[in-house]
Specification:
Blueprint lengths: L2 H28 L6 H174 L6
């Protein structure tokens, strides 16, 4: 039996007892108190007992109301706790749904970043390759230019060597000519001297023939 039904049954009993006491009180008031002293005293005692019961009933009712209020508050708290639990579960479910989406988004973002990094690495490699090719080309150009300069210098050296050889040959030829001319001059001078000597000897012979020496 619920507390409301208990309260209703108790209220009906109280009403019935109160009607009986009121009837007894009326009887005591109508009768002669001296003849019916016991009746009047009993009515007073019943009234006091009724007051005590009413007070006890009121306290019980207040206690029941407080208990009911406490129960109601507890039920409200439990209901609120259940609501909070339900909301928390809903939030967790929503969080669980969001987490795979976040994870997928993060995976997609990470994949995109990795692709961008790989593309950037390929670009860096291509730029580095281009720089190496350019350096090689420049080095080859410089090497070719240096080689051409060396070849040109070698040609100049060869030309200068040929020129020196030509000069040496010319100088040798000039020296030979000069030597030949000197020899020719020497021969002519010798012939001239020989001729002069011959002339002197001939002149001396002629003088001796013309002026014989006196023998002492």
């Amino acid at each position: 039996m619920s507390s409301n039904q208990n309260q209703q049954a108790g209220q009906q009993l109280n009403n019935q007892q109160q009607r009986q006491q009121q009837q007894q009180g009326k009887n005591c008031q109508n009768a002669n108190c001296q003849q019916n002293e016991e009746c009047c005293q009993g009515g007073i005692n019943q009234q006091r007992q009724q007051d005590r019961q009413d007070l006890s009933r009121q306290q019980n009712q207040q206690n029941n109301q407080g208990l009911n209020a406490q129960r109601q508050q507890q039920q409200n708290q439990q209901g609120g706790q259940q609501l909070n639990n339900q909301q928390q579960q809903n939030q967790e479910r929503q969080q669980d749904r969001q987490d795979p989406n976040r994870q997928q988004n993060n995976q997609g973002l990470n994949a995109q970043r990795q692709q961008n990094q790989e593309a950037g690495q390929q670009l860096n490699n291509q730029q580095q390759q281009d720089r190496q090719d350019l350096n090689r080309q420049q080095n080859n150009q410089g090497l070719n230019a240096q080689q051409r300069q060396q070849q040109a210098g070698q040609q100049i050296n060869n030309q200068q060597q040929q020129d020196r050889q030509g000069n040496d040959a010319q100088q040798n030829l000039n020296a030979q000519r000069q030597q030949q001319q000197g020899q020719q001059n020497n021969c002519a001078q010798q012939f001239k001297q020989a001729g002069q000597i011959g002339n002197a000897q001939q002149q001396q012979q002629q003088n001796q023939q013309q002026h014989p020496r006196l023998i002492h």
